[in-house]
Amino acid sequence: MTRELDEAHTKANTHAEKSAQHEAVMLGLWGIMSSKESAAANRDLDSDDEELERTTSEPFSTEAFTSKVQRVFSRHNDLETQTAILKRQIEQQRELAGKSTSEDAARASELEDLKEREQEALEEVEAQSKRIEQLEDQIVELENKISEHQDEARIAAIEAQHKESDHQDRLDELNGSLNQAKVARETAEANLAMKAEEMDDLEAEIIRLTTELAMAKAELDGAYGSRSERANQVTSHPEFQELEQKSKSMSAELEQLRRDKGQHESQMAEMLGLHQNAESRAKSLEGEIITLREIQAAGTRDDGRMRALEKELAEMATDYQELTRETVEMEKEREKLEGVIDSLRDKMDALEVQLSDEKVRWLGVRSPGGTPELGGTRETTSTMVLRNEFKKMMRETRAEGVKLLRAEQEQRRQIESQLRSLRRERNGGVSPRLGMNSPGLRPT
């Protein structure tokens, strides 16, 4: 499409150059005719001095050029009439030559003068006739070329109108894309509000569970019974079972929250794609408008239509900037949500650690009121070693899981930081051209 506009613009410039060349040729012919009239005036021919002075000092124009050609033709006719009169006078002089010998010398001199004037008049008539023929041929050729250029200019104007209609269709399509992006943004905002509410509920639930765990610890510390009874209590105590069940439930909710976060990231990626699509279309439309403005400078564009098109593009640029700003705000909210998720994950890990430590600690607790069995007054070395190894294994497993999770989060943050940097660079390269203060969008 841009190549066709460039061809139309080049064709219009070529027509303008040809018209300028034709005008230069006519101007040269004007100068030749003016110089000839000045020379005729200097030779004191029968002509009106004031008329010659007016025609020689008259500025060039198409009407003046046509008028001068008509005057030259009229002068040619006058010279032919004078030539015929001179011929009759010569014949009369020849008839009167035999009447008086005293008048022969004067008549001969006058006759010679008349012959010279006749010869000069004939030469001038012949030269004027040739110039008139050349001028008529050039006028016909110029009129044909002007008519051809006018037809080509009309064709170029019609093509420009069709292209303008295509540009309007593209603007409508781009506005539709912007509306879709707005709908997606509103949906994402609603999802963010729901996730924030779920986060608040989850955080309150964690606080409640932490309080219940502390109370359970206090109750267990004051409990009595043998080691086997306490071991059975660990596995059968309703509060611990409830804590374990709630821990599993919270893990499931956290996993669901992660999946929701993934969906939110996919929505953000989709919105980014819409931004890129809108940006590429805005660039293409801006280039087409610049090309149309150049065609308008050559006389093939309508000023009012161009201003309306530029106004629509400016409004679209404003909507695009607003959408970009809202996307940045959503990105900040997403980062805040990720921070809340990380905090909840840390609290969840701490709760699981406390629950595991409590289970392990209860395995080795002896009842103060029970009767010690043989060899039960002290924990055996193997039991202590196994318990310590179990604790160590649990700590290493949790530490490794936390380490992998932190590495994954850090890698994700680096990738998101790079994406934000690229987005800012891209927005920084587009917004100045789409702003209302840009020379490319300022109405002409």
UniProtKB/TrEMBL annotation:
Residues 1-21, 38-63, 93-129, 224-266, 420-444 are annotated as: Disordered. Coiled coil: none annotated. Residues 184-269, 278-364 form the DUF7801 domain. Residues 93-120, 255-264 have a biased composition (Basic and acidic residues). Pfam families: DUF7801. InterPro entries: DUF7801. This is DUF7801 domain-containing protein.
